[in-house]
Structures are given as structure tokens and as C-alpha cells.
Amino acid sequence: MTTQPPAQPRKTYAERKAQAEEFLRSHTLGVFATGRKSGGPQQSILRYAFRDDGDVVISSADSAAKVKNARKNPNVSLAVTDGPTCVVVYGEARLLQGAEAEAYLGEAPGNGSQPGEPTLIVFAPSDWRWARLDG
Asked: Are 70 and 93 in contact (CB under 8 A)?
């Protein structure tokens, strides 16, 4: 007769959220979603940063659809996956440009290869979802 190892205690929400935050810090590529004028989703695969203050930061340009969409409807999400692990965060975006963006970053923001004024999309996650944080 085999015995099963003792069950591990369930992690608290705070412990799981800390795991999810660390997961976001250790990755840089995700799928960012905004709402189109038609009501459908607009998704972009992009690089992001998860700051120590808890903000998600995306560099773009004011000509990009994601910036135009976030200006009209600031409700956004970011999904980050790695194998079976997935973290999705939702929040309300703010757009920073010029001196405000530079002050926020501590340096001039880039716009990647997109034309237009460099624009930061910044949001503090207000809602979290995750799957298989333990792999």
C-alpha cells in the first residue's frame, strides 16, 4: 500500500498575486488588447515592462491603433503566457507624451519603428487572472 505525500496548503490570494507579479516582471512579451471603434478587440503582440510600482508600461506612438483605441476607451488588458502558465491583467490606461512621459520614465521614451509622437500606455492592473502559476 502506497501512501500519498501530505497535501500542500492552498496558497492565499496575496501569495498567488505575488507569484503573478513576479511572472510579469520576468517576462517582456505579451498580447495587449484594446477595443476597436466597432466594439471588437484589437490585439497586439508587443514588449512591455512591469515596474516595481506595479504599473504596466508599453511604448508606442500616437499613430498606432492601440493608442487611438485606448484614447477612446481606456479599458485594456495584457495577457502573458509561458508554456501552461498564463497571467492576464486588466486596467484603465493613461497615455503619457512629451515631458510627462519623460518625467515618468526618467528618460525620453521611444516609439519603436512607428511614426508619430512617442506615447506611453500605462496602467495599474485592477483585476488579475492566472492559470497554472506553479507550472
From this structure: yes
Q: Report in angstroms the alpha-carbon separations of 72 from 15, 39, 63, 76, 104.
A: 35, 11, 14, 11, 22
Cβ contact 91:124 at 8 Å: yes
User: CATH number of the domain at 13-131, out of 3.40.50.300, 3.40.190.10, 3.40.50.720, 2.30.110.10?
Assistant: 2.30.110.10
Interior angle at CA 24, CA 18 and CA 27, nearest 5: 140
pLDDT at position 66 over 80:
yes
Q: Does pTM surpass 0.70?
A: yes
